[in-house]
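Quick one: co-fold with S-adenosylmethionine.
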Amino acid sequence: MNQTLQAGALYVVATPIGNLGDLSSRAIEILKSADLILAEDTRSFSRLASHYLIETKVKSCFEHNETRRIDELNQRLSDGESIALVSEAGTPCISDPGYRITLACREAGFEVLSVPGPCAAIAALSIAGFPSDRFLFLGFLPQKSGKRRSSLEEALAIRATLVMYESPYRILKVLTLLEELIPKGRIFIGREMTKMHEESLIGSPGEIREELENRPKIKGEFVLLIHPDREALAPE
Ligand code: SAM
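Sure, here it is.
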């Protein structure tokens, strides 16, 4: 048991979405002094751990074993251990596992504490120049085309900036759909944010689709922001 952290608490720790320098000093301290780290992907976490000389014991905790980890976690927290939870990148529980564990800890009466930091959705929102007073996070859209269309239509009916994650394989499909639904809308794409090939794209759905379609290969990680009304983006 360590002295630095609160005993019997689960720390939900955000980790970098690309640039390793984005791990906060508090996150480093907590990861170093926790009794155990639960990591979505132990291999990717080991890169971060060796960069920051974190020697804490690590166990995997991903979507399909999250529920099975709960009994062990509750036992350890009852014994007064401090546990850190990390996902593969960014903030746990944001289109990443962690929700079941945090809920179970709360329900069992343990403290769940936040160690905030990188999140791709918030990073994109912070640089796009789109209104952020009302935004709706959609995570990943459904893969089936009918469901994808109905989720987008439903979301577009809400007056808010829409924020979503998308894979390089499906980005053109989403842009083509947006071209049909909101041809005059405004799109922002944050690609590979904080990484070497970081790029921002802004324009109508058709402009962005054309730009990406003309590339030999579409690569990287994407956050897509949608504002349905281009005119409404002009400052008052
Ligand atoms: N929990 C993470 C967070 O807080 O942002 C998100 C995890 S989700 C499984 C991964 C998706 O986030 C990627 O497919 C991509 O859409 C987006 N993403 C993650 N890192 C990114 C980056 N550096 N640039 C752009 N998008 C990124």
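If it helps, Strands lie at 9-13, 36-39, 58-60, 82-86, 111-115, 135-140, 161-166, 186-191, 199-203, 222-227.
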